[in-house]
Amino acid sequence: MAFKKEILEIIEPKDIYVGKEDAPVTLMEFGEYENDDCAKANEVVKQLLEEFEGKIKFNFRHFPQTKIHQRSLKAAEASVAAAQEGKFWEMHNVLFSNRRNLGTVSLKLHSKEAGINNKKFLELLVDGTFGWQVQDDMQEAITRGVKQVPAFFINGEPYTGKLSFADMSKQIETALKKSKPSKQAKHHA
Q1: The domain that contains 24 carries what CATH number?
Q2: DSSP 3-state of 53
Q3: 144 CB-near residues (< 8 Å, 6+ apart)
Q4: Which of 4, 33, 118, 126 is surrounded by the most beta carbons within 10 Å?
Q5: 46 close to 79: Cβ distance less than 8 angstroms
């Protein structure tokens, strides 16, 4: 019995969304938790989720810039760990608020603030339980040609405008318009 290793079913970052599941527009970001521009972008994302409630869903993918931000990798793993308990968005926001303080022990404190009561949280981080999920995201970012963070995609298309609420809203409006006709076409088929 003692030797039986529990197999952990891990919810992958690509399957973690904030917002309405069947929203017509998906906003995806590759980012990391120690980057100031990502923190600024997160505030824009919060506004967008509010403005387009029910019309967009947000998917955050991890691309820690480990050469300059050594702690961003464990922070990414911490948010994947939080997602396993349905607390991704809470942890995501706590991490950005505390982006100057992301040592492994601090991550445990942040998890409490995000409402996570898992006694093994620190153990999971130290063991690198969610390391592969972060590596998968990093690989996908590279495959998609992401060079720096934050990098956004709207319905899979790279977003090249300014990281402002006004500019991103326009792109989302355009994506919403594009998404409507295809739905009608499906109904006629």
Answers
A1: 3.40.30.10
A2: coil
A3: 30, 151, 153, 158
A4: 33
A5: no
76-131 pLDDT tens trace: 999 999 999 999 999 999 999 999 999 999 999 999 999 999 999 999 999 999 99
Asked, for residue 73, whether it belongs to a domain, the answer is yes
Identify whether the C-beta of residue 111 lies closer than 8 Å to the C-beta of residue 78. yes
Q: Per the domain annotation, does 162 fall within a domain?
A: yes
Q: Are 95 and 79 in contact (CB under 8 A)?
A: yes
Task: Quote the strand ranges of the chain, DSSP E.
Answer: 18-19, 25-31, 56-62, 151-154, 157-158
Residue numbers of the domain that contains 169? 13-175
pTM of the predicted protein model: 0.90
Q: Is residue 6 part of a domain?
A: no
103 occurs within a structural domain: yes
